[in-house]
Amino acid sequence: MRLQYILEQAISNLRRNILVVFAAVVVVVVMLSLVFGTIIIRWSIDRDIIQWDDNVRVIAFLNDDLSIEEINVMQADIQGWDHVDEVIYFTKTQALEEFREIFFDQPSLIDVVEEDPSILPASLRVKPTVAADYSTIRDRLVVMPGVYHVSAAEEAIDSLVARAGTMRGFALWFIIILGTAAVVLIANTIRLAIFARRDEIGIMKLVGAGNWFVRVPFLLEGVIEGMIGAVLAVALVWSFAGPIAELLSMASNAANPPQSFMIRQAVLLLGFGAGTGLLGSAFGMWGFLRD
Known about the structure:
291 residues, alpha+beta, Alpha-Beta Plaits, 2 domains, 4-stranded antiparallel β-sheet, 11 helices, 8% strand, rod-shaped
């Protein structure tokens, strides 16, 4: 009977303030849609970064007068550096084969290089442990004896790393701003419900109703508002998760977020929505229903 009463009172409060409840739910939907969407965007960016981590190389072009023993010593030395995952030696012959593959559609250019293959230098291909560490490796290679030029995809890597940082900051501020707006609106809804039932609440207290017996329906009302908003946000973003990931992905083999990832994030979002509603209810009752 007590549980039935709590549910009835919570639903009754929602009906009495339908417009304010609607506004609170809309804010929760907008907030959590942006949060969920940002999570998917971050997944897409992190996936790109992982792929870049596997493919990024800092190339140190070597002087022609280096002996194979000197090159082996350099390779062993670089392999021992922090942030270095792997070092591969590329001979002039391998450089020529790579040149043919890259410029296969320009036979005249290939003919020019094949006339004097020595113009293609040997090199050390250095794989960073993390893509963002390429600049540290590059700076050390530049001043290394026997290296006459260092090449890396600076602009592409910097752009990707910067984009990841920007999105993380963007997500944090949206959560703070819209989360605060949702809590304030839900708190306002609860305050209106308490004010509308102030006489009834006063009578209940006079006949011995405990504070928590009075509070629980209002707490439940806030949780329901937060959960409704969270469910709508999950349904909305889930429908567009694939296109969002594909649009933002820089990878050639763009893929949709895995089902397990989506389910895990959706559950967390539902909990976040319920928590937002509970917090809003607690603030709404502050000063009205004190012990």
